[in-house]
Amino acid sequence: MEDRGVLGSLVDRAVIRIGALIILIWKWRASLWFRREHGRLPQLCPPKGFNDKIFWRKIVDRNPLFVVLNDKIAVRDWVSRQAPGLQLTRLLWTGADPEALPASLLDQPVMIKHNASSGFNIHYDGQTPRRDDMVATLKAWMARTYGTRLSEWAYGQVTPAILVEEMLGYDDGSAPDNINVHASRGAVLFASVYRGDKRGRREIGFFDDSGARLAMQMMDEVDPLPQDWVPSETLFKALEGARALSRDVDYARCDFMATEAGIWFNEMTTYTASGHLKLDNPTLVDRLTEGWDLRQSWFLTTPQTGLREIYRKALVRVMDRRQAVSQ
User: Are 224 and 195 in contact (CB under 8 A)?
Assistant: First the structure.
């Protein structure tokens, strides 16, 4: 660590405070949204909590890999290279023109998604919605600009398209489990298991990297899994898959679907909840995600230009000093 003395330390702290002020003013809508959700502005001097780190990443870190990871189509090839043994859902069709959606695909239940956004999915049951209504919805999706409202840079860089995947489920017809694993540089930070259907009753439980239950819960209408619920082997397979997928990324959430037949990779995100993750034990979340070291981020490990480089170096030095003091 470079020793710049007391004066150098003061200069570095002044630089990152000015940088934080510029970020908050530049992205004032995202800043006010954060304040509305959390009752405070994001802490950026330096970012400490999980949601603060996500906010900082959205605005500052323009890692080119994020564009691939957040593209539900392009990420499939990346996953196949990063974790060759990981099973992917069967991709039935992709295209940019909703009118070209083959009618033959609608003779069966399928998942229809937008590739460059979060939450834009249609669980098509083989009957509803009607094709005309579906095409109208898909056209509306394609007409939107993504990533700007919440300042999620990578989404705005993805070439938009529609994808159709096979529909997964348990043998009894129930929806697959959704397993979301938060990981950093090959290490699992924590995971969640959703059971049930988004359109009906859902339950969720949180687990550490060993599969032990964590004492926290979503602050919404999702019910907790029963305390005596025991994870199946699929959770441990998802944890292993996330370790492989995250080994070259300072942080990503790796999502999987699971049934009695095994697990499938679903998607990845670099902007979990857009920095608005709300759990009833935020202190525990921040502690669990201390392993996400922003000093390993693309921005802080890649020389920048101009004022961005001055800010980058100052932030690295401040974080290095804080790390040294805490040890």
Answer: no
Whether residue 94 lies inside any domain: the answer is yes
| 248 domain residue, yes or no | no
Show the tokens assigned to 194: 């959703």
Q: List the domain range (segments joined by +) for residue 27.
A: 5-63+275-326
- For range 194-209, the mean pLDDT: 86
Look at the chain and count its residues. Answer: 327
Give the residue among 13, 37, 15, 33 at the shortest CA–CA distance from 24. Answer: 33
d(CA 316, CA 296): 10
Q: Map residue 113 onto helix, strand or coil.
A: strand
Q: Calculate the average pLDDT of the chain.
A: 94
9-13, 57-61, 177-181, 200-204: lowest mean pLDDT where? Answer: 200-204
Which secondary structure element, helix H or strand E, spans residue 178, and what is its range? strand 177-184
Provide, rounded to the nearest whole percent, the portion of the chain with pLDDT above 90: 86
Q: Average pLDDT of 90-104?
A: 95
| Tokens encoding 9 | 């330390």
Specify which residues 252 forms β-bridges with.
Answer: 183
Picking from 38, 44, 72, the residue whose alpha carbon sits closest to that of residue 270 is 72
pTM attached to this predicted model: 0.94
Count of domains forming the chain = 2
Residue 14 inside a domain? The answer is yes
Cβ neighbours for 27, distance < 8 A, ≥ 6 positions apart:
59, 151
296 by DSSP, 3-state: which? helix
Q: Is the pLDDT of residue 1 over 60?
A: no
Kindly state the DSSP code that residue 92 receives in the 8-state scheme: E
